[in-house]
Specification:
The complex is a heterodimer of chains A (about 120) and B (about 120). Chain A is an all-beta fold. In chain A, about 0% of the residues lie in helices and about 50% in strands. In chain A, the strands form two sheets. In chain A, strands 2, 4, 5, 6, 9, 10 and 11 form a seven-stranded mixed β-sheet that branches. Chain A is globular, with a radius of gyration of 13 Å. The termini of chain A are far apart. The chains are: A mainly beta (about 120), B mainly beta (about 120).
Chain lengths: ~120, ~120
């Protein structure tokens, strides 16, 4: 059973297209995140949601729109893709954001290549 | 602003030997959490070990242990009896909590250290 699953694992698309990445967690966690890993392997948070509510938006271009239909899902939609959007995108979840159960579980990542 | 620094872009170790990966961080908070994550070529982010700042005892997980020096803001990872499967990128991370915003949080990552293990 995969705890945090992302689809697709690989995505190659042309500039200007619109694409979505889906994420689902079966851990019952309250908070979900999107992180971006650039070509130099640097990881940075993009968004976090807690019980479907947007909590963190880290100065991400508004071409990126997260959507959380329920607390087990957090999808990422990207409009008008640019070359600079090429990266690995990780979904993650955590249990109680302010309590002792502070572990994060990551998905396996989606490698997005914009050509 | 909180930052995490990993000063060793690359490290190498012989199989069965011990290696230490460095991590320093900057924060004005007194309570926080620190993590080491491993990212093998499969790209999966795997939690290796975690440490609560209020605990003076260093965390250990089998062959992995940390040297947590709170005053020095240092959080190094020691891997004992290194195995070929330990070869990966290792990321140090700090958990920032916005306690006055409903307790929500995020991880701040260092730039990573690539560890090679030689037979």
């Amino acid at each position: 059973d995969t705890a945090v699953s992302q689809t697709p694992k690989y995505l190659v698309t042309q500039m200007g297209n619109d694409k979505s990445i889906k994420c689902e967690q079966n851990l019952g966690h309250d908070t979900m995140y999107w992180y971006k890993q650039d070509s130099k392997k640097f990881l940075k948070i993009m968004f976090s949601y807690n019980n479907k509510e947007l909590i963190i938006n880290e100065t991400v271009p508004n071409r990126f729109s997260p959507k959380s239909p329920d607390k087990a899902h957090l999808n990422l939609h990207i409009n008008s893709l640019e070359l600079g959007d090429s990266a690995v995108y990780f979904c993650a979840s955590s249990q109680d954001p302010s309590g002792e159960n502070y572990g994060y579980t990551f998905g396996s990542g989606t490698r997005l290549t914009v050509v | 602003a909180q930052t995490v620094t990993q000063s060793q872009p690359e490290m190498s170790v012989q199989e069965a030997e011990t290696v230490t990966l460095s991590c320093t961080y900057d924060t004005s908070e007194s309570d926080y959490y620190l993590f080491w994550y491993k990212q093998p070529p499969s790209r999966q982010m795997i939690l290796v070990i975690r440490q609560e700042a209020y605990k003076q005892q260093n965390a250990t997980e089998n062959r992995f242990s940390v040297n947590f020096q709170k005053a020095a803001k240092s959080f190094s990872l020691k891997i004992s009896d290194s195995q070929l499967g330990d070869a990966a990128m290792y990321f140090c991370a700090y958990r920032i909590s916005y306690m006055f915003s409903g307790g929500y949080n995020k991880l701040i990552f260092g730039a990573g250290t690539r560890l090679a293990v030689h037979p």
